[in-house]
Amino acid sequence: MSTKRAPRTYTDIIRHSVTSLLLTIGLIIVLTVSITLTVDQLFRAQDQAEKLSTSLQTTQVSNFKDWLAVNQGSGLNSHNTFVLIKQSDGTTTSLLPHTSQLASASTVSVPFTHLVYIKKSGLYFSETLRTGTRTYYLYIGMHVLVGNLHVLIAVLIIAIGLSLLIGLLYVRRLAKSLSAPTLALANAAQQAAANPENTQAELPQPEEPVEVAQLARDFNQLLAAQNGRLERERQFISDASHELRTPIATIRGNLKLIERRGEQHPEVIPESLGFIDQESLRMQHLIENLLHLSRADRADVSLQPLNLRELAQAVVNHYQPLVSQPVTFDSPDTSVMALADTDMLHQILTALLDNAHKYSPEDQPINVTIAQTKDAVTLTVADHGAGIPAADREHIFERFYRVDASRSTKIEGSGLGLSIVSRLVQLNEGHIAVTDNNPHGARFTVTLQPAPPKKN
C-alpha cells in the first residue's frame, strides 16, 4: 500500500533540488576527468608499446642484457614494464624476475581495450608482438593512472562534500528569505479567516518576490471586495430592521390605543384600523421586495432573443390606465431584438414606470423610448419631476437609499425598487444609468445586448 508523501516546504524543495544538482555536476566532472585521464594514459601506453615493439623487432632481444639496452633507449620505467618471450618450441624466457608470475596469474580483460587486470599485481596495458620465431608479451603498468585516479576522486569527493555543505547552508538562508513573505501573508490570511464577521485589514504586501507581491495584491483586492460586501450586508440588515421597525411600532401603537380607549372612545377604532391596514400593507410590500431582491441575487438567467418593442408596448398599454400621468411610447417601426429574460425585463420596465409615477407631477408625461444601434439596444424611461441631484445619482441603486429623506414618509416606497432594477439589469448582462431630463426630471437608460441576426 503506497503512502502519500507529505507536502514539502520551500527549504525541503530547494535543498533537494540543489543537492541533486551538485551531485549530478560532481558525478559528471568525476566521469569526464576520469575518462579523459584514462584515455590520455592509454594513448601514452600505446605509444610506448609501439616504440618498444619497434625496438624489439630491430634488436631481436633474447636475454636480459639486450632488454636493458632496449629499455634504456626507450625511456620506459623498468619497474612497471615487463616482457615475456615465448619461443617456437614452447619455452618461455622472462626478462625480469616477476614476468613469469604475471603470465601465470589470473587476469581479467577490460572489453574494447588492451587493459588487463592481473590479480595481486594491478592494471596493465598488454600488447602481443610476433617476430620470427619469437612472441613477445609486453606488460606496461598503469599504476600511475590508478594512483592519479585515486587522488582525483578523493579530491573531487572532498570538493563536492564542501560544496554540498556550503550549498545547504546557503539554501537554508535562501529558503528562509523566500518563505518569509509567504509565511507572513499566510499568517495574516489565517487571522483574517479566523474573524470572518469583522472588517479585514489589508494583508502585508512585500516588494519581492514579484509573484508573492502579486498574490498579496490579489488577496487585498479580494479582501476589499469582501469588506465591501460585508459592509453592504450590515447596512442592509440595519436598514431592513429600521424599515420593519416603523410599521411594527405603528401597528402595536394603534393596537394599544384601541385596547386602552376603544371602549370609551369607539371612534378611534376605525382610524386605528386604517393605520394598521396601511402599515401592514407597507410591511407586506417591503417583505415582497426583500424576497424579490433575494431571488435576484440567486437567479440563474438564460438570455434569449426577444422583441423589446413589442414587450415595452404591451407594458405601456397595460400601465397607462393605472396612472394619472400620460405615458408616451417612441420606438422604431421595425422589431427591436435584444438578448434578455422576458419576465425580468417586464419587471424592470414596470419598476421604472412606478418610480417615474411616484416622483412626477400628475400633469406631466412619462416618456418611454426604445432605440437601437449596431452594438446596443436601449430602453429609456424619462419623467418631468424634480430630478435627482448629481451627488445622489451614484447611491440611488443602493438598498433602502432615498434621495430626499424628508419626502420618504410622503411618498410610498421601501427604497428597494431601484436596487432590484439594478440587479435585474446586471443579470441580463446590461447596464443602467441615470441622467438629467430636459428641462427637468430624470432619465433612466437601460442598455442591453442586441440579439444576433437569424441565420437563413
From TrEMBL:
Residue span, HAMP domain: 176-231
Matching InterPro entries: HAMP_dom (IPR003660), HATPase_C_sf (IPR036890), HATPase_dom (IPR003594), His_kinase_dom (IPR005467), HisK_dim/P_dom (IPR003661), HisK_dim/P_sf (IPR036097), Sig_transdc_His_kin-like_C (IPR004358), TCS_sensor_his_kinase (IPR050428)
Assigned EC number: 2.7.13.3
Record-annotated Histidine kinase domain positions: 239-452
Xref: Pfam families: HATPase_c (PF02518), HisKA (PF00512)
CDD domains referenced in this protein's UniProt entry, alphabetically: HATPase (cd00075), HisKA (cd00082)
Keywords attached to this entry: Kinase, Membrane, Phosphoprotein, Transferase, Transmembrane, Transmembrane helix, Two-component regulatory system
Transmembrane segments annotated in the record for this chain: 21-39, 149-171
Enzyme class: transferase
Listed SUPFAM superfamilies: ATPase domain of HSP90 chaperone/DNA topoisomerase II/histidine kinase, Homodimeric domain of signal transducing histidine kinase
UniProt GO molecular function: kinase activity
KW Hydrolase (keyword) present: no
Cell compartment(s), UniProt: Membrane
Catalytic activity: ATP + protein L-histidine = ADP + protein N-phospho-L-histidine
SMART domains: HATPase_c, HisKA
Name the UniProt record assigns to this protein: histidine kinase
